[in-house]
Hints:
- It is built from eight helices and eleven strands.
- The protein is globular and about 60 Å long.
- The protein is an alpha+beta fold.
- It has one domain: Beta-lactamase (3-Layer(aba) Sandwich).
- The strands form four sheets. The protein has a five-stranded antiparallel beta sheet with strand order 3-2-10-9-8, with helices on both faces. A two-stranded antiparallel ribbon has the order 1-11.
- β2 and β3 form a beta hairpin.
Amino acid sequence: MGWRILHGVFVAAVCAFFAACSAGASSSPPSPPAELAAASIQPALARSAGSAPPAATPTATATPRAKPPILVGAAVPTIAAAAILVQDVDSGASLFALNEHARLAPASLTKIATAVVVLESGIDLEKVVDVHPDLERQWLEDSAVMGLLPGDQFSIRELLYGLLLASGNDAARELAVAIAGDEATFVGRMNALAARLNLADTHFTDVHGLGSPQHYTSAADLATLSTYAMALPVFREIVGTETHTTVGSQELFLYNLNPLLNYTPGVDGIKVGYTEEAGPTFVASVTRDGHRILVILLNAPSMAFDAIKLIEWVYANFQWSAPP
């Protein structure tokens, strides 16, 4: 059928971020609440550099945490977002934090948990599933989709690419049914995962993040979840892939919606999201000189630009200890 790029409204949002970076967008996603917006943020180093909240890993044996990096340069740049967390992965130290425990809508960052539940289910990733003939098309309008049609046949692996690259809400629904029989049961497994990882500020009500007021998480919980997910080889491989052409009943060309992948040096994952309620949301994984950080932004109107500012600030102004 030829390559098809099915980005939906979500791509328009990502394009708007880049337009804002270069020339200032004429229209932008909703601004964060005034009481949470940060027009001029001072680094919260009292609870950041040196503080190391526990971060779960997929391995049963805990490894000693590395020493946190030390701030040796300039203070954090000006960032506007409802919640921010910049975390050093090896030590678990927060390098900068703002409202990191605020319970906010995550939009498609939800799909990080969706993918983890799929990968931990034990299902054969090469198993081919039939897209249900009663696939609801109406609710998919004006949302990001992989491009599934009723009767399509794709493997679980291909659906994961559609979930994590194209942010496909259709892929999320099909994966949930394939794994658990129905979405409600699958959501129960997502909340069980949240409980197992001690994500105290997280509750899921769906598999895609289109959401309800009871569907929320926090920047701190997303750091724990993202660290856990990035330790899963298949997850890490998929979110680090820029483009993918599906093998199945359709040949779909999927483009990773992460605006910094293969654009900002060191970015190797993980996920973006957008809804009108949540605003732009982003988790970025960055590795330079062997030092990995996570940058989490929730309801951040200049998501891509501000993520780049935080990334460059960290690597220019923090010093890591040499390994023993």
